[in-house]
Amino acid sequence: MDKLRITGGSPLNGEISISGAKNAALPILCAGLLTADTISLSNVPKLNDIATTLKLLSQMGVRCDRSQDNAVSITADQVTTLEAPYELVKTMRASILVLGPLLARFGEARVSLPGGCAIGQRPVDQHIQGLAALGADIKIEHGFVVARAKRLKGAVVRTDMVTVTGTENLMMAAVLAEGQTVLENAAREPEVVDLAELLIKMGAKIKGHGTDRIVIEGVDKLHGASHRVCPDRIEAGSFLCAVGAAGGSIVLRDVAPDTMGATISKLQEAGIKIECGSDWIKAGMTGRPRAVDVRTQEYPGFATDMQAQLMALDAIADGTSVIVETIFENRYMHVQELIRLGANIDIDGHTAVVRGVTRLSGATVMATDLRASASLVIAGLAAEGETIVERIYHLDRGYEKMEHKLRLLGANIERITS
């Protein structure tokens, strides 16, 4: 199992390019199921979650061609099975995103419930309720969501909570439904907008994406299209936190600063000097960051996917910060690992109180999830001595060659392959 060895204390200097957004690429790949024509995609990141999705589609009979330059073509003209098995779904919750497209185009789908998911505890129930509102007959059988509909019919669907994958699944289902569908309380994330833009290129009629009310006029058929996946705002934010912790001056290319308002605002509050262009960000840091409070929220608020990285920055900041996690109930698993590095953090329910220390000290730590991995790398860059981050397969799910990009910026970091 691979590890990262980091020797802290080196400031970051130079420039790197940010990859395409994982959270946009996953639903966009699944959208290829909506047509028999070819979908040509560029800026698709090379990540474990992308590989899992391509494997899932391939098992269904979809032709998936990947070139060396982050381009992928999807052709679903000979789909042989309408089932997404547990073996693949258990490794990635986003696999549920094949449910809407399969049901809309083929009238049937059999998708395993994501691993460890009880209906009602996570937003998977919102997907099911929404598809049922569109006329689907849905049952839970032997751990599978089994859905059938001769043709979905447009309806007004209001989810009980804001759910990104729920909005994406329902939007993909509705584009081939008969009549008008209105998605109320829809997610506004840039990744939802990116999916909608691809669907429009394929012939879908969608308005209101980027707001909490999306209106979709169903069409009989979609066609092929070409699309470039939007930049990964979470990866970009992670590198901004890294320079805030390690110091130095970096330039990020191929970014979309206009999607990163909440992150940029908080990091400027922490003392990072940030300049933005249309597709670049320059960030510099000297001295110690200032402690900043944050409360995670749905977009355009501060993203839950940036909470762990900001906590690593707050861990060495001047002052005490309060972080409130409102999206996920179990998103403080990185705290104990940061404490192993010398951080002073107390947890009370959904609230973390972080008392900044003047220095962290290197230690062996274990990644528990994707964004926790990034927070430990950031902390390791700022720590004295050597830090070993174990179980970085989590990191590889969402960051393309993170250690390579950090080395380009002057970090002392290497992957240890066992």
From TrEMBL:
EC number: 2.5.1.7
Modification 2-(S-cysteinyl)pyruvic acid O-phosphothioketal, positions: C117
Catalytic activity: phosphoenolpyruvate + UDP-N-acetyl-alpha-D-glucosamine = UDP-N-acetyl-3-O-(1-carboxyvinyl)-alpha-D-glucosamine + phosphate
MF term (GO), any: UDP-N-acetylglucosamine 1-carboxyvinyltransferase activity
Top EC class, one word: transferase
InterPro entries to which the protein is assigned, alphabetical: Enolpyruvate_Tfrase_dom, Enolpyruvate_Tfrase_sf, MurA_subfamily, RNA3'P_cycl/enolpyr_Trfase_a/b, UDP_GlcNAc_COvinyl_MurA
Chief location category: cytoplasm
Listed GO CC annotations: cytoplasm
Pathway stated in the Swiss-Prot or TrEMBL entry: Cell wall biogenesis; peptidoglycan biosynthesis
Annotated signal sequence range: none
Catalytic residues (UniProt): C117 (proton donor)
Key word NADP present: no
Positions of UDP-N-acetyl-alpha-D-glucosamine binding: R93, R122, P123, V124, D125, Q126, D305, I327
NCBIfam families the record matches: murA (TIGR01072), PRK09369.1 (NF006873)
Family: Belongs to the EPSP synthase family. MurA subfamily.
Protein name (record): UDP-N-acetylglucosamine 1-carboxyvinyltransferase
